[in-house]
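[scheduler] slot 2 assigned
[scheduler] job type: sequence-to-structure, two independent chains
[scheduler] chain ordering preserved from manifest
[runner] begin chain α
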Amino acid sequence: MGFFSWKTSDTKESISNKYSDKGALPVYLLCPDGTKLFEDDYEGYGVFAGQDAYVLLARWNAPDKCTGDVEHDRNIGIYLEDDEIKFPLKFVEDGALKYNFVAASEDDWEFQGYFYSSEEDEEY
């Protein structure tokens, strides 16, 4: 199984995990209700500040399909991510930003928050 990662909405930087040569990139997961989840030790599996991003995605966008079972709701969120949804995931480095004022974060399929080339590392 690979890692899950996204690019931040504000800087377009890959959210690196703590196992990468870069270490974890500190980020905020912005929530539609105005709360922010800060994570500075991301492990790469979609959990930010103790909350599974895919579970949140499901509960924000398809509450009628959620059962409260984390694994079930997580699977709903994973499938929803590719759909047009009202409340997408939004990760930022700048904690002063608000959910409604930033774009959705893009998936980082290329690096997965871990697989950076040495050439890419030299840029940071």
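[runner] end chain α
[runner] begin chain β
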Amino acid sequence: MRLNTLAPAPGAKKERIRVGRGRGSGLGKTCGKGHKGQKARAGGSVKAGFEGGQMPLQRRLPKVGFNSPSKNLTDEVRLHELSKVAGDVVDLLTLREAGLLSGVVSQVKIIESGAIDRAIVVRGVGVTAGARRAIEAAGGKVE
């Protein structure tokens, strides 16, 4: 193979259509744009969504957002915050009594942030893999 023999694959390069070069080309005179009007002129394009002055669809429709119904039902507790829990068992009730959860939270996950220095038993609460290792290393267990 030599540089002077390189060529694109057949059909890969299309020849540019030359408009306005006579009737015989098939695209002479009006160049395939029809007669007059905005779209026949130079720069004659309308922005996306424009409906000729009529109120566009995206402005006619009401704007409705989305509020997740379960947004405030979940929470996370850091590992070092578990020292505020009285007793050796950590569950939703003891976390709420320690002031770590609000009243509406129904799902909790313990994340590894900080350290834990005592053995605890975790029940009915989600635990990340790192937090599970730290709890078990401190002599506790996750049920």
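[runner] end chain β
[qc] chain β: Helices lie at 57-60, 92-97, 129-137.
[scheduler] slot 2 released
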